[in-house]
Structures are given as C-alpha cells and as structure tokens.
Amino acid sequence: MGLTGTIPKDVGNLTSLVFLNISNNSLQGHLPAEVGLLHQLQYMNLQFNELSGEIPSSLSRCWELRQLSLNGNKFNGSIPGTIGNLSKLEKLYLGENDLQGRIPQEMSNLNGLTILSIPYNKLEGPIPAGIFNISSLQMVILRNNSLYGALPTDMRITKDIL
C-alpha cells in the first residue's frame, strides 16, 4: 500500500471494525492505546511496518480478537501479561521485534491458541510450562531467544517447536 506516518488515536473511534490489515507498509511510532476500544475486532495484522514502543496492554480489551500479527516491527519492552485475557485468540505472531523479559505466565490462559510465534526477540528465562498444556496448540516457534528449561517429556516434538 505504501502507507507512511503513524496510526492515529482516532482508530479507537472505529468501534464496529472487525478486520484490520495494514501490514507491509512504513508505519512508524507507537500503537495507540485506543486500539483497546475496538471490542469487535477479530483480526489485526500490522506486521512488517516500523512500529515501535511497547505493545499496549489495552489490546486485552479486544475481546473478539482471534489473530494478532505484530511481527516484523520494532516493538520493545515486555509482552503484556494481559494478552492472556484474549480468550478467543487462536494465532499470535510477535516475532522479529525487540521484545524483552520473560514470556508471561498468563499466556497459558489462551486455551484456543493454535499458533504461538515469538522468534527473533530478546526474550529470556524459562518457558512457562502451562503453555504446553494448551491442547489446541499446533505450532510453537520460539527460536532465537534466550529461553531455557525442559520441554514436557510427553510432548510430540516437531521441527516447528523451537
């Protein structure tokens, strides 16, 4: 599309928005907290822009969100634990950012999650064991972080797990 500039706070006025795809552009700046007002939003794809700053915890108020794609940006800070409140989330893509800290324990609450992709960040610490109790999980990509710990012995390991 060739979009430049920032995502305006006015995006929060689009309260009936269900689908937002402004990926593969040159958008910069922070993702405004007002995205949390998009309670009907089911799909958000902002991948491969130049967005920075922290992922707003207000995203947890997008109760209908099924897919969140923020990979390929410059987000930093930690993954907000409030993401664990997105009970309908099926696909989470946060790879290729500058995210730091630990994977929040609350992500174990994402019972419908099928894909968890957070490679190429600066995450560290143990992988929350509860993540591997999500029965719907089909793909976990964690490579190129500084994570450690044992994987469950009863888990079927595929090449897509790390």
Outline the structure in words.
The chain is globular, with a radius of gyration of 15 Å. The chain has strands at about 5, 20, 25-30, 45, 50-55, 65-70, 75, 90-95, 100, 115, 120-125, 140, 145-150. The strands form two sheets. Strands 1-3-5-7-9-11-13 form a seven-stranded parallel sheet, with no helix packed on it. A six-stranded parallel sheet has the order 2-4-6-8-10-12, with no helix packed on it. With about 160 residues, the chain is mostly beta strands. It starts with a strand and ends in a 14-residue tail after the last strand. Helix content is about 0%, strand content about 30%. The chain has no helices and 13 strands. The chain has a single domain (about 5-150), classed as Alpha-Beta Horseshoe (Leucine-rich repeat, LRR (right-handed beta-alpha superhelix)), CATH 3.80.10.10.
Distance between the termini: 33 Å
Report the top-level CATH class: Alpha Beta
Q: Can you name the CATH architecture? A: Alpha-Beta Horseshoe
Q: What's the overall geometry?
A: globular
Strand content: 25-35%
**Percent of residues in helices:** under 10%
Core attributes:
6-stranded parallel β-sheet, 162 residues, globular, mainly beta, Leucine-rich repeat, LRR (right-handed beta-alpha superhelix), single chain
Helix and strand arrangement:
Blueprint: E1 4-6, E2 19-21, E3 26-30, E4 43-45, E5 50-54, E6 67-69, E7 74-77, E8 91-93, E9 98-101, E10 115-117, E11 122-126, E12 139-141, E13 146-148
Parallel strand pairs: 1-3, 2-4, 3-5, 4-6, 5-7, 6-8, 7-9, 8-10, 9-11, 10-12, 11-13
